[in-house]
Design goal:
Blueprint (H helix, E strand, L loop, with lengths): L3 E4 L5 H11 L11 H18 L2 E7 L2 E10 L12 H12 L3 H19 L7 E8 L8 H15 L4 E7 L5 H4 L3 E8 L7 E8 L2
Parallel strand pairs: 4-5
Antiparallel strand pairs: 1-2, 2-3, 3-4, 5-7, 6-7
Length: 205
């Protein structure tokens, strides 16, 4: 299996949205189940990440994007996706959400999430792994390990010694517990108290 790794372009954005939808549990963000509305939710989240990102790399197999890592470091002011108009993408997604009841519910859920987050302990990090995903059909081929190493190598060249990431108990958070990450914060999900969000940091040697 030959996987190609490369820097992402704005043309990869739709494929990255597909990865998010097909491999992430969106119930941590909303109670809505309508696929069209959930696509707009994923679009909003990823457009925000891409706007901030200084590093985006994709894994590609047979012309299919099967993995992605998105990260940011304040020490690298350049944006990873040039000519990507995130504001326009977000405005269009929100406009589509306002057209349906489930779409408006997503906007309400997002507002509640922001209000809850504002009440949490403020933790700012100069460098952060924003989104990391490998399609479930392509796991166990070390794609995730290669993407993670590429991100860490990049931020090391920027003089970074520590970075953070956020995850939740619906993801395989145990990986971080067992691989050199330190959990520094946790708090319940605003929709389901049985789900916890975790913040980790990793020191780079």
């Amino acid at each position: 299996m030959t996987v190609q790794y490369r820097c992402a372009t704005k043309n990869d954005f739709a494929a990255i949205v597909d990865l998010f939808i097909n491999n992430m549990n969106l119930s941590v963000f909303t109670t809505v189940t309508d696929p069209c509305a959930l696509r707009q939710l994923a679009t909003i989240f990823l457009a925000k990440d891409c706007h901030r990102a200084s590093f985006i790399q994709v894994a590609e197999y047979d012309n299919l994007v099967c993995g992605v890592i998105i990260g940011v470091t304040q020490d690298a002011p350049q944006t990873a996706l040039s000519c990507f108009d995130s504001d326009s993408v977000i405005r269009q997604a929100k406009a589509k959400l306002r057209l349906s009841g489930q779409g408006r519910q997503i906007l309400t859920d997002l507002q509640a999430k922001e209000e809850t987050r504002a009440q949490q302990k403020d933790m700012d990090f100069d460098s952060e792994l924003q989104f990391f995903c490998v399609d479930q059909n392509y796991r166990r081929h070390r794609i995730g390990a290669v993407l993670m190493q590429a991100f860490e190598n990049y931020i090391i060249t920027q003089g970074v010694t520590t970075y953070a990431l956020h995850t939740d108990t619906l993801c395989t958070y145990q990986y971080y517990d067992n691989n050199g990450y330190q959990r520094v914060n946790q708090y319940p999900n605003h929709l389901n108290a049985q789900i916890e969000h975790h913040t980790y940091i990793k020191a780079l040697s």
